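Ticket #4471: structure export looks truncated?
Reporter: QA, pipeline team
Priority: medium

Steps to reproduce: submit the single chain below to the structure queue and open the exported record.
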Amino acid sequence: IVQVPIEMTDLLRKLYSQIEEDDLTTYLKRDIECVNEVSKIMRYKQIAISPDLLIPDMDPEYGPKFDAILEMVYGAGDQKVVIFSQFARVVRGLHKLIKKVDKHVAMFTGKDKDLAYRQSQVDKFQQEDRCRTFMTTMQAGGVGLTLTAGSIAIFPDLMWNPPDNSQALDRLCRIGQT
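Actual output as written to the record:
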């Protein structure tokens, strides 16, 4: 497992500072019900991936994590890549960007409950040489899929529970696989 450090842009630093200031103001007012640590951390995670997750009018292509992920996908050569995110909006945004360069991309977010569609996306990734990238949410694709054609897993964000991340990674690495 390799962690890739990503430098924050000036805008991201500004947004982080704004969230910190808002949280501090709320805390000082003793409005404890509004200071939910989990939601605060979730906001930081969202800003770090792509500011548009919190600012809907912002271009979803913005953000250094998107740039780093695209660089990894395009630099993978013949290896197949699986991208897991807990945010469907991240998956859809990356899908849109990658599809501009490579139309043979598979994606499943779980929003579409059609199991035949889900299986068609898995089959496309597993069986078609030209399909090099599969994107899914952790909730939809982190359990019960076989994605052994993939050799690189990218996590723009991690789940709270480390076994959930391991379970997702296990979609690529099955028992007996070399």
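Status: closed, not a bug. The export was complete when the record was re-opened. Leaving a note from the reviewer for reference: The two ends are 17 Å apart (CA to CA).
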